[in-house]
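Q: Structure tokens for this one, please.
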Amino acid sequence: MFWNIEVEDRLFEVRLLDGAGMRSCWDEVERMLRKAFESAQYNDEGYSIENPVHFTRAGVDGELGPGVKHVVAIENGALVGGFFCLPTRPNKGEKSCDVGWVFLAPDLPRAYRRGVLDAIMERGFQTVKDGGFERIVSNMGTMAGSRALTRYGFVHSPVPGRQNRWVKEL
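A: Here is the predicted structure, written as tokens:
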């Protein structure tokens, strides 16, 4: 599936990919993840640039369960953003899910960042909701992510032993 979105004067394509689709562009996905997170300040002790790469790859390879999808934003054939590891098949009675990493290309001009991020998040939330989930319960990997994603309804909801816990009702 794909959707064309216009942000200011530029056209972006937002695509929903499965594992095979992500494997076909994995080299670019990994390169962009490394570029986007190379100077990040992580929220959890021990997190590094390897976390977004390895978790995303696990979702691509089916290690996070069946039906995991990924939203990517593309401009002129280049990857400019993504929302990865979106579960679409809950176990019986399961209403909450975890999701993967969100990023925008560091060189995407500021004037386009919010519109592209809005589109990525909207498609990602809809994908998870269409799969049958009612809420997302996840860690925020970076300080920047914590700040940015509160505007999409994520609420900091720590519990004992899990201080970096965020909840988004769908």
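A few notes: Residues 110-130 form the longest helix (21 residues). Residues 36 and 106 are 6 Å apart (CA to CA).
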